[in-house]
Specification:
Number of strands of chain B: 10
Order of helices and strands of chain A: HHHEEEEEHEEEEEHH
Distance between the termini of chain B: 68 Å
Order of helices and strands of chain B: HHHEEEEEHEEEEEHH
Oligomer: heterodimer
Shape of chain B: flat
Radius of gyration of chain B: 25 Å
Strand content of chain A: 25-35%
Helix content of chain A: 25-40%
Structural class of chain B: alpha+beta
Strand content of chain B: 25-35%
Strand order of the largest sheet of chain A: 6-7-8-9-10
Strand order of the largest sheet of chain B: 6-7-8-9-10
Chain lengths: ~280, ~280
């Protein structure tokens, strides 16, 4: 299908452009394929925004709780700014959504000790449902860091085989930003990036579908915890370590290139001699 | 409006977007991005003037290294003319293929020059090549030296660059510094970029500016050149060790504040217990 190929090309390009400008990049590409702009925006990972309801209570704004230019709060189930004729989860799904948010808040407290979390659920045409479990955590302006943030976007697709098997497919993206405005030694320094991981698990429902809602929350929560923990462990080596490696193999510290070449020379000699 | 005119207007709109996208693409990936842009826009190929111009801008922005049989040149905004580049040292104009990064042709030309400034330029080139060989990745690196003016009022322009391009392993990097000096002042701009895109898109963008007082003695060209390049290398070394320190301090200033590897209890969350407890609380 032509639209699929064009969107894929857009996503390929987005992977190469600076993630600090993700919104601008996405808008630029969407202007080339205006008919598929909506579809493109839904596939993009970017730092999560925060909205408030009339009482000042915060909720996360994302593609998964958006309708037009308004966003639905996981607290009040209302859209802000308010709109008529919007999309809402079914009553049963909204009940599940309330429970999931309560539990996910505890997870956020345990691992993030701050930040904001939101879970959004929606019905799917194939009879299953899907959910997005989202977290936004900021690093305070301190120790030279101007902006720093972590955004987790966990999207889980839930299906059943109609009997007793439930399959959960998770795609998790973590978007990180770290911005240093002016450091006397290095000037302006910014590392921004997204890492994505997917996982799929299947489980047999509890006998008689007892407490099925709680079962879903436990299974989804465990998956989120596993994948987020894995991506967290990649923080140092992949997000940051990799960019350092790339720079330090482009330009070497004083004396280091000579040292490396000497070492390589010796290794070559050793190989020749002892095979 | 007839069909032909409609097409022109559409392309003009695309041009702005194409320029923006190609300009912001990490060096080494522009050809791939252009291919994808052609797929998106449709009915256009990488040799279209819009694409070629965007690629040319990209190459000049990134000090692309263009190779010939026994010579090479860096493309920059500074030595760029309508459809060729000026090689001051060899008194040539050079036409290049921006896609293949190859020299297509060279022509002799008469350029204004000053013997004393030429001597300093040649000495600087020698020192820069030495500096490149000592501290930069051999595969893709180069430098340029040009000047404007005369012995009483001159400005020299230097460019230093090295690139890492490893597409099979999903990473690229570039170190690009441009400098200018007069008799008494040296100024520089440095751009360091790194891009890693296996399972994602992570990019480093680091810019810094430098300024230092110097004293150029045209009668001692060799010594002056050594001092200037030494100053540049000193500033760049200081910048790089600053980066090293910053990376070492990241776990403390950044990671710790983000997300704990485990809750403070030392164990993973007990979902079963929490689910029952919290949902019961909800009912109240």
């Amino acid at each position: 299908m032509e639209s699929k190929e064009k969107i894929l090309s857009c996503l390929n390009i987005l992977k190469r452009l600076p993630p600090t400008q993700i919104q601008k990049n996405a808008t630029a590409l969407a202007s080339l394929i205006p008919d598929y702009a909506e579809e493109l925006y839904q596939k993009i990972d970017k730092p999560l925004d925060i909205g408030q309801d009339e009482k000042g209570n915060q909720f996360i704004q994302s593609e998964f709780n958006r309708d037009g230019d308004s966003f639905r709060s996981h607290l009040t189930n209302q859209y802000y700014p308010s709109i008529d004729d919007a999309v809402y989860p079914s009553e049963a799904l909204r009940k599940l959504e309330l429970k999931a948010n309560a539990v996910f808040e505890e997870y956020r407290r345990l691992y993030y000790e701050g930040g904001l979390s939101s879970c959004y659920f929606w019905d799917k045409e194939d009879g299953g449902f899907a959910t997005a479990w989202l977290i936004r955590k900021n690093v305070e302006k301190s120790k030279g860091i101007e902006d720093g943030s972590w955004s987790s976007i966990n999207v889980i697709d839930i299906k059943t085989d109609g009997k007793s098997k439930w399959t959960y497919k998770i795609t998790t993206s973590v978007v990180l930003e770290m911005n240093i405005i002016q450091n006397q030694d290095v000037g302006k320094f910014n590392i921004t990036g997204t890492l994505t991981k997917q996982k799929e698990e299947s489980y047999d429902a509890p006998a008689g579908n007892k407490d099925l809602e709680l079962f879903h929350i436990m299974k989804i929560g465990t998956l989120v915890e596993d994948v987020e923990s894995y991506l967290r462990s990649q923080l140092d080596s992949v997000y940051f370590g990799k960019t350092k490696d790339i720079v330090f193999q482009t330009r070497f510290n004083e004396g280091e290139k000579h040292f490396i070449q000497q070492r390589q020379g010796l290794a070559g000699e050793f190989k020749q001699k002892y095979g | 409006m007839n069909q032909g005119e409609e097409e022109v207007t559409e392309l003009q709109q695309y041009e702005k977007v194409v320029k923006y996208i190609v300009k912001n693409t990490p060096f080494g990936q522009a050809n791939l991005v252009i291919k994808d842009l052609c797929k998106i826009i449709g009915n256009i190929n990488p040799q279209h003037p819009i694409m070629l111009q965007a690629l040319r801008d990209h190459n000049e922005e990134h000090l692309a290294l263009i190779k010939g049989q026994n010579t090479q040149i860096l493309t920059s905004v500074l030595n760029s003319q309508e459809d060729f580049y000026v090689d001051q040292k060899n008194n040539e104009t050079i036409q290049v293929d921006h896609e293949k990064l190859e020299i297509i042709s060279r022509s002799q030309v008469e350029l204004p020059s000053d013997p004393e400034l030429n001597t300093l330029r040649d000495a600087l080139e020698q020192q820069l090549n030495l500096y490149l060989s000592q501290q930069f990745n051999d595969k893709v690196c180069g430098a340029y030296v040009m000047y404007q003016g005369d012995v009483s009022d001159f400005t020299f322009y230097l460019g230093i660059t090295a690139k890492t391009i490893n597409l099979p392993n999903f990473f690229c990097g570039s170190w690009i510094s441009t400098w200018e000096f007069t008799k008494t002042q040296l100024k520089g701009d440095l751009r360091v970029q790194a891009h890693y895109y296996e399972d994602g898109n992570v990019q480093l963008k680091n810019v810094n500016t430098f300024s230092e007082g110097i004293n150029v003695d045209l009668s001692a060209a060799s010594e002056s050149a050594k001092q200037i390049v030494h100053t540049i290398s000193k500033l760049e070394n200081k910048h790089q060790s600053g980066m090293d320190n910053l990376y070492n301090s990241m776990p403390d200033i950044f990671f710790k504040a983000m997300r704990r590897p485990l809750p403070i209890t030392g164990t993973k969350m007990n979902w079963n217990e929490n689910v029952h407890k919290l949902v019961a609380n909800l009912k109240q």
